[in-house]
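Record format v2
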Amino acid sequence: MADLELAETMETQTAQNGAALDLSPPEQPPAAPELAGRYIFHPPEPPHLIAIWYSREQDALKAEYMAANPDAPAPAAVEHWVRHENGEWVPVPGEKPTIPQVLHAGTMRKELPLIGYAPWENHVYFGIALLFVAGVFVAATRGLRRDRVMSMRRPTRVQMFVETVVEGMYEFCKGVLGPENGRKYLPYIGTLFLVILTCNIMGMIPLMRAPTASIVITGSLAICTVLVVQITAWSRLGPVTYVHHLMGSPRDLVGWILAPLFLVLELISDFIAKPLSLALRLFGNIFGKDILLGAFLMMGIGLMTTMAGAAVGDIVGVPLTIPFYFLGLLLSIIQAVVFSLLSTIYIALVLPHDDHHDDEHAAEPHVGAAEPTVRDPVPDRQPL
Amino acid sequence: MFPNPETALAVAYPLCLAVAALGAALGISRGMAAAMEAMARQPEIAGKIQTAMIIGAAFIEALAIYALISVFLIA
């Protein structure tokens, strides 16, 4: 009980000092009893934004507090904690989250007094993205499931939108993989594209975090692609051709001499380099985008606070970041396209070449070309 | 007289990013210029050229992103 009283006094003291961003430790150092002053909990009402920013360290501190004070009521939410250079967590009572922290909750927490993020957040947000995409598709196909003819005659708005998107993605897959394989791999490529796009854009929604700004999520997506590519290669080429392909498709003596070298090279390239580059590219781009947006927001607010005063600095400074949101939108789309495009290319590389070429010839007879393109009569990789 | 290591790092990180961005910009500009020229010369296969261009740009851009990531992770 004494702790809570102390907490309230500290809170009122800091509230008087104003809500300015203050990275320095609180004026009043933690009191002599070791637990007093270390734990400051917010009353349950009003619902506070900070409740979202629970992290593992805070949970540990809460558990420690509950063990030390078994009689105390369970705290509702923890205030901010600042980690000092000596590694100790010190509460900063009464400070409200700043605008960059709210608008870019994902990346601005580390740099500002709020401590790091909880590791499970990425997975929750990734699940939200998956549910969103699934929900849009369920809503789009509702009419189709109810009455097929009627839904074709008078499609709903969502259905039209989803049909346009799926058609565009099918055209893209057909262009790279051929009509048959394109149809076969459209579900994977399309899902990848839509989910990554949703994830990327989620970082620009206030209070949300882009799950793709974490190497765990992008790494898992890259591993999915590697699995699809390898399973495709194994099942479409057959075990013998698969190993032959891994050895660089040797045909003559020099090829067979160099085969062990190519085997190692292909193994490293297929299982390490490709997923690593896929994961790091997406992670770096999206993380950099979020950091950039937060940095420009802070810069705009700081600039406008200096020029126009603290009263209107936020109001004038926040819209300054809007141009960079368009940049972020563009980057999100491009990175989603690049990830799914590279996945498609990796799949196309392991597909048997001859039927792919046949499909392509059948599909588009090269309209506009003055003379028919002479293709290499011997494809460099033929199934045995 | 050496600067303290933090000062040296504060100079080195942006420099690392700048060199990476310079290299990536040179590479992408060469590829882009060639692709634009090819697209202007043969507009009928502009789609294919564009796809190949985006793949190449993604590969080049990844190198700059690696520098960015290492700065983020070490800083």
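Residues 7 and 13 of chain B are 10 Å apart (CA to CA).
The helical segments of chain B are 5-41, 46-74.
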